[in-house]
């Protein structure tokens, strides 16, 4: 695609075409809303990771090194950290990278900021599409009311001619 948006005069479209455009817009909105929700979930996970790294970074040297290690989503076992200055960071698609606490904090902070910007952009797009959907609904409603009133007048004229 060239990146240029094509504008269509809604008044020139038939009600059936308007309904089809509305249906397509509703599907896009549903997909974008799901994407927004998934991005928000990812942002929350990165925030949790950031808080954990910050907590470990701010912990005193004599604090407990006891942790719960996940074996499955619902099964944890007790463990103890042997190195409290380095952590494994999931950088995506299951790849783990060992980082010091400061680097891990910076990584997660960057991820949270990046997702915040993406969420703002996506929110703007969703709002614009919602506004377009409302506009299409209004034009469609006006066209249906106009066709009904014309149909009613046409029937009245036929009854007078008979």
TrEMBL record:
Keywords annotated in UniProt: Chaperone
GO molecular function terms noted in the UniProt entry: tubulin binding; unfolded protein binding
Entry GO terms, CC: cell division site; cell tip; cytoplasm; prefoldin complex
A UniProt-annotated Pfam family: Prefoldin
UniProt-listed GO biological process terms: positive regulation of transcription elongation by RNA polymerase II; protein folding; RNA polymerase I assembly; RNA polymerase II core complex assembly; RNA polymerase III assembly; tubulin complex assembly
Coiled coil: none
Record InterPro entries: PFD_alpha_archaea, Prefoldin, Prefoldin_subunit_alpha
Annotated SUPFAM superfamilies: Prefoldin
Keyword Cell cycle: no
Family of the protein in this entry: Belongs to the prefoldin subunit alpha family.
Protein's name according to its UniProt entry: Prefoldin subunit-like protein
């Amino acid at each position: 695609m060239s990146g240029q948006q094509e504008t269509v005069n809604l008044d020139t479209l038939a009600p059936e075409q308007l309904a089809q455009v509305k249906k397509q817009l509703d599907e896009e909105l549903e997909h974008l809303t799901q994407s927004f929700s998934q991005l928000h979930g990812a942002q929350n996970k990165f925030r949790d990771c950031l808080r954990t790294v910050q907590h470990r970074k701010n912990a005193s040297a004599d604090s407990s090194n006891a942790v719960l290690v996940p074996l499955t989503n619902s099964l944890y076992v007790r463990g103890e950290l042997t190195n409290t200055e380095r952590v494994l960071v999931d950088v995506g698609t299951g790849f783990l990278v060992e980082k010091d606490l400061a680097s891990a904090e910076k990584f997660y902070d960057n991820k949270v900021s990046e997702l915040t910007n993406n969420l703002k952009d996506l929110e703007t797009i969703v709002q614009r599409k919602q506004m377009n959907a409302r506009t299409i609904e209004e034009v469609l409603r006006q066209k249906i009311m106009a066709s009904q009133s014309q149909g009613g007048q046409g029937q009245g004229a036929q009854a007078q001619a008979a």
